[in-house]
């Protein structure tokens, strides 16, 4: 989010759209790859919607062509898009992977979460009884 704000202040909106669209298509392809891997590794799990594997494999073929073409035609935009994705790695390690955090770090994360919820007018549902209006 911070990287996107900096890019918006420095660059133009068209460039930001190019960065984000590359990231989106990369994530779509990884999701379809995950679907295929799950179909092979866990064929017996419940799936509310079943799709013939020919459809995701065909999608992946077109996806790979478009991604390779994007990397060839605009390597700088794709590289910046990958850098934007990689800015989330430290956040993952600090927030999710690091389990035995000091209490001060937990309090900081909780206060940032509360601030973000207030800023965006969202509240994570709590396990208690809902208040009546």
From TrEMBL:
It comes from the Eukaryota. One of its GO terms (biological process) is D-serine transmembrane transport. Gene3D superfamilies: Amino acid/polyamine transporter I (1.20.1740.10). One of its GO terms (molecular function) is L-amino acid transmembrane transporter activity. The keyword Transmembrane helix applies. The keyword ATP-binding does not apply. The chain crosses the membrane at residues 16-39, 51-73, 79-98. Keywords: Membrane, Transmembrane, Transmembrane helix. This is AAA1 protein. The gene is Slc7a10.
């Amino acid at each position: 989010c911070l990287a996107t704000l900096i890019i918006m202040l420095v660059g133009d909106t068209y460039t930001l759209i190019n960065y984000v669209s590359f990231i989106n298509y990369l994530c779509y392809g990884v999701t379809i790859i995950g679907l295929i891997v799950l179909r092979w590794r866990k064929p017996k799990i419940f799936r509310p919607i079943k799709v013939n594997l020919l459809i995701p494999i065909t999608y992946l073929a077109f996806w790979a062509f478009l991604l390779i073409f994007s990397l060839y035609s605009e390597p700088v935009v794709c590289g910046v898009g990958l850098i934007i994705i990689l800015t989330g790695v430290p956040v993952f390690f600090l927030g999710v992977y690091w389990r035995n955090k000091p209490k001060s770090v937990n309090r900081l994360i909780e206060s940032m979460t509360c601030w973000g919820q207030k800023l965006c007018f969202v509240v994570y549902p709590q396990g208690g009884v809902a208040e009546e209006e």
